[in-house]
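Lab meeting, item 3. Inverse folding demo.
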């Protein structure tokens, strides 16, 4: 099992890094540049024109691993890694449509919020139904991490909750993708968590362990180009794929509530944005944060006056994510035995 996980990591790392050397110049040639939102920090405007849709690097890397290292599993009739991959690809495609609209219109807005939400909700419901039909989740049982107990729900309520968790996770990761490397760095510990629990859980989680290992390699390869100063952005193609994959893995492990801890950075980012908007409306123009989401608040001097650099925010968020990933392992350890 360890051999296949290591092989998945190496293949994804090498492919993502090597593919970037060809892919980024092609994006530049096609003028597939990112339009920067004017409402963001004004110093971000110099990033305008940086190639976007760079998430294709780690997406292709994962596809390659699933079809090669994961081929033996498919010959045995095991397709959980393919279900998870296809689900993430659907979200990646929604992100691609959004990116394409931005590129085509030379504007920083793509698909409407209603269209994106409808597509994401439909994808979430289909995925949960597929996992239920194939026996990978019990639509009545909701595992409670840290308490090692199970809460039994009405099937309809479970499906509603599942859809909320998936769509929420996807958009939370998307919100976090606001400065160089931030979504990638925050996600690395999440996939490390998935890899560790696969190893602890044994061969029954082999396919999920391969996906987690491949994503660690793919994201590290992508970070070669996405770390500050970024030569390429992942775009919504990458961030929605990433969010979809993180959510799908949690359900495939049948422990969706662990997203509360492993996804703490994404939750903080989302809550900061929701709080800012709500408070702004209720107080007719007052703000809690300098700018939301929270990483922009830090960039602009926050409550302390210190203007955090992008590399500092990257390090902070990655470390926080890593700490909570380690804590999360203890939260599900007994389920794996």
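The presenter then showed the designed sequence:
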């Amino acid at each position: 099992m360890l051999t296949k996980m290591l092989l998945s990591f190496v293949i994804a790392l090498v492919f993502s890094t090597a593919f970037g050397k060809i892919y980024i110049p092609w994006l530049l040639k096609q003028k597939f540049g990112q339009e920067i939102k004017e409402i963001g920090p004004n110093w971000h405007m110099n990033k305008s024109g940086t190639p976007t849709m760079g998430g294709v690097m780690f997406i292709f890397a994962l596809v390659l691993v699933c079809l090669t290292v994961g081929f033996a599993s498919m010959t045995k009739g095991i397709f959980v890694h393919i279900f998870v991959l296809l689900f993430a690809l659907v979200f990646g495609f929604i992100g691609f449509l959004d990116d394409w609209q931005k590129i085509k219109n030379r504007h920083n807005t793509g698909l409407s919020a209603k269209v994106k939400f409808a597509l994401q909700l439909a994808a979430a419901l289909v995925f949960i139904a597929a996992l239920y039909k194939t026996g990978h989740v019990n639509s009545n049982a909701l595992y409670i991490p840290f308490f090692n107990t199970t809460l039994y729900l009405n099937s309809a309520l479970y499906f509603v909750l599942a859809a909320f968790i998936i769509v929420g996770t996807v958009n939370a990761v998307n919100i976090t993708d606001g400065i160089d490397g931030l979504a990638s760095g925050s996600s690395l510990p999440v996939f490390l968590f998935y890899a560790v629990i696969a190893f602890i859980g044994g061969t029954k989680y082999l396919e999920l362990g391969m996906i987690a290992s491949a994503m660690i390699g793919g994201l590290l390869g992508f970070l070669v180009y996405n770390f500050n100063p970024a030569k390429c952005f992942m775009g919504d193609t990458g961030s929605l794929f990433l969010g979809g994959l993180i959510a799908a893995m949690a359900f495939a492990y049948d422990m969706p509530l662990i997203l509360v801890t492993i996804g703490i950075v994404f939750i903080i980012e989302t809550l900061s944005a929701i709080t800012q908007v709500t408070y702004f409306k209720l107080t007719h123009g007052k703000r809690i944060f300098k700018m939301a989401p929270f990483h922009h608040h830090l960039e602009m001097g926050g409550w302390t006056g210190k203007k955090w650099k992008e590399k500092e925010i990257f390090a902070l968020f990655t470390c926080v994510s890593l700490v909570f990933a380690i804590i999360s392992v203890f939260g599900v350890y007994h389920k794996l035995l």
